[in-house]
Write a structure and sequence with these properties.
The complex is a heterodimer of chains A (about 450) and B (about 180). Chain A is of the alpha+beta class and about 450 residues long. Chain A is built from 21 helices and nine strands. Chain A has two domains: about 270 residues, Hypothetical protein af1432; about 140 residues, Growth Hormone, Chain: A. The chains are: A alpha+beta (about 450), B mainly alpha (about 180).
Chain lengths: ~450, ~180
């Protein structure tokens, strides 16, 4: 007899249940490919346990999305004001449809990821492409549409796309208030379950305990609320009783970024990987020259495995494209930190790291210097909180802890290890001069 | 426009908006920047889509976070109202002094936007900005169909409110005309 429900053991959520259609997605080629895409790229070179894959993360996101959906649509958790703002909540017949869409969107939200979940997509994909756009192509592919069409009720691929990639990445699509809330469940800045799952999972696998927090309480206290008192726009917010778990989430994120995601050694391995990939892709032997493929068959053929195999060969062949970058990765002889952004330096130059990297390139040659400026991460404190009296407050008004959290700007300049001592001496001598001169040029007419 | 010049532009906008009595929460800055860029032609490079409370740019949201990280803006809490307000930091003025060209180039446009929108609440900003968005993106010039489209996109806005918003934004466009900049290459 065909099994209707399936369950999968998971280290974070214990059991994840799938229905027959979800199992079909699980068994599809785009989803199975995620078994070979590491969640945290080369982070395992620093944290050896971080070898987990996008596959299990995507299952976790589906599980959490489902839990959030059940909580926020529970009649007892809805006020008349919210029902007025989101009329879809009154359509009981439509809710099961949207829950299916949400679960499928959660499953598919990462299927477009490049090998090693690589962040440097702008350099490695043709202009205008991103992993979200690839996810969208896959969700809308014939292979996946066959599954959506076979479902009862059949799912609209565009609905799945909206929830999987959100308004930020699906700029051509119009989102209703309801769709905006549902996409927020997956990709939202404050309480997106993508974020909740990766913090818990990455924390578990890296052994960095900072990423853990009471997500059970957090999810149980989530509510659809007006963005602010009297607002016509609903948002995913929280009951006052859940504010401590929301604080814990924000702190977990802060620590995981500073300790893991933006660890300088991880950042330099990312740069070495990008250098290797650029050189490897440019030779065009396996893939379209210069970038990762954007056609579905090409994308499905490209995983960490192909890149690892090529990197291993390149590391031992001095004539292979990307040899030196591959060597740095495979032999663990990464570039060393020459300069780290300093808040006082930033008072005379907005991007002191960029100025020093540019000067160092002139002094030591382009190949010897690498610059990294990871994106500033919003502390995501822009969500409404419902107090005991039913009044809506901004999160930073409701929580002193959240009001104290600040985003952090980071910049690093790395140098070839063989030049480290010379470069340090050089920097000590010229640092102030470089920063002041470059600072004076910031108001010039055009981008350098 | 360089990242630092864009930061200078927004620092100046924040200062001028506050001086005109604006609440200066994120929504206020979003709508003011939208008019500054898409109406007056100040090429700050943000992409606006129709989202919460009308035209919204995720890139601008990221930029505001960066500016907090760079000690150019800080969020202050208020007991009542829309939520937090963006305020300049003690460093902001010193930072602006390093950008005399950028400041001089766009000061008139910024003052105009601050003067026109500084006293507006979120609901009115949403109506005006969405009315302009429809005119600009969908080229619906006539007030009546534009107001209908506004209601279609934002059902919580009544038709008379939508009509009034379209008329007001048309008159705002006329006042802005002498200050409109040529698109930069």
């Amino acid at each position: 007899m065909t099994k209707i429900f399936h369950e999968i053991r998971d280290p974070i959520h214990v059991f994840i249940h799938l229905d027959w259609y979800e199992k079909k997605v699980l068994d599809s080629r785009p989803f199975q490919r995620l078994r070979n895409i590491t969640q945290l790229a080369l982070t395992y070179l620093l944290y050896p346990g971080a070898t987990h894959k996008r596959f299990e993360h995507s299952l976790g996101v589906m599980e959490l999305a489902s839990r959030v959906f059940d909580v926020i649509t529970k009649p007892a958790n809805l006020t008349d004001e919210v029902r007025g703002l989101v009329p879809d909540l009154g359509n009981a017949d439509a809710l099961p449809y949207w829950k299916h869409v949400l679960r499928m969107a959660a499953l598919c939200h990462d299927i477009g990821h490049l090998p090693f979940s690589h962040a440097a997509e702008e350099e490695l994909l043709p202009k205008g492409w991103s992993h979200e756009r690839l996810s969208r192509s896959l969700i809308e592919s014939d292979e996946m549409r066959t599954i959506w069409k076979s479902m009862v009720p059949r799912l609209d691929a565009e609905d799945i796309v909206k929830l999987a990639v959100g308004a930020r990445k699906a700029k051509d699509l119009q989102f209703s208030k309801w769709e905006a809330i549902l996409s927020e469940i997956i990709v939202g800045d404050a309480f997106g379950v993508d974020r909740i799952d990766y913090l818990l999972r990455d924390s578990h696998h890296t052994g960095v305990a900072y990423g853990k927090f009471d997500h059970y309480r957090l999810i149980d206290e989530l509510r659809i609320l007006p963005s602010f008192e009297g607002s016509s726009e609903p948002a995913l917010g929280i009951n006052g009783g859940g504010i401590y778990s929301a604080e814990a989430l924000a702190l977990a994120r802060y620590f995981m970024f500073s300790q893991v995601y933006y660890h300088p050694i991880r950042l330099i391995y990312d740069r070495h990987l990008m250098d290797f990939l650029s050189a490897w892709l440019a030779q065009g032997s396996l893939l379209a020259a210069g970038t990762f493929p954007i056609d579905i068959e090409g994308h499905l053929k490209t995983t960490d495995d192909e890149v690892n195999a090529a990197m291993r060969i390149a590391a031992s062949d001095p004539h292979a494209p990307g040899h030196y970058a591959a060597h740095c990765i495979m032999r663990h002889c990464h570039y060393k930190v020459l300069y780290e952004r300093d808040s006082q330096d930033a008072k005379v130059n907005s991007e002191p790291g960029a100025a020093i990297a540019k000067a160092a390139e002139i002094e030591f040659g382009k190949d010897a210097v690498r610059y990294s400026k990871p994106k500033v991460k919003d502390v995501a404190t822009d969500f409404p909180v419902c107090g005991r009296d039913g009044r809506i407050q901004a999160a930073i008004s409701a929580s002193e802890t959240l009001s104290k959290l600040q985003p952090t700007a980071m910049e690093y300049v790395f140098i070839d290890p063989q030049l480290k001592d010379r470069a340090k001496t050089w920097l000590d001598k010229y640092r102030d001069n470089i920063l002041a001169t470059a600072g004076e040029q910031e108001d010039q007419d055009h981008e350098a | 426009m360089k990242h630092s010049q864009r930061a200078a532009l927004l620092t100046l906008l924040n200062r001028e908006m506050l001086s005109m009595g604006s609440w200066c929460g994120e929504t206020h800055i979003q709508k003011a920047t939208f008019f500054l860029q898409d109406l007056l032609g100040v090429d700050s490079g943000f992409e606006f889509i129709l989202y919460r409370h009308g035209p919204f740019s995720f890139d601008l949201r990221d930029e505001l976070s960066s500016m907090q990280a760079e000690d150019l803006l800080e969020l202050a809490t208020r007991r009542e109202g829309y939520g937090p307000t963006y305020l300049p930091t003690p460093f902001s003025e010193r930072f602006l002094e390093r950008f005399p060209k950028t400041t001089a180039r766009y000061l008139e446009q910024i003052k105009f936007v601050a003067g026109e929108l500084g006293d507006k609440a979120v609901a009115e900003l949403e109506r005006l900005a969405t009315a302009f968005f429809i005119l600009d993106r969908e080229c619906i010039v006539e007030v009546k169909p534009r107001a209908q489209r506004l209601v279609e996109l934002k059902p919580h806005i009544s038709l008379p409110e939508a009509r009034m918003a379209c008329e007001r934004v048309d008159s705002l466009i006329e006042r802005a005309r002498p200050l409109m900049l040529e698109k930069e290459e």
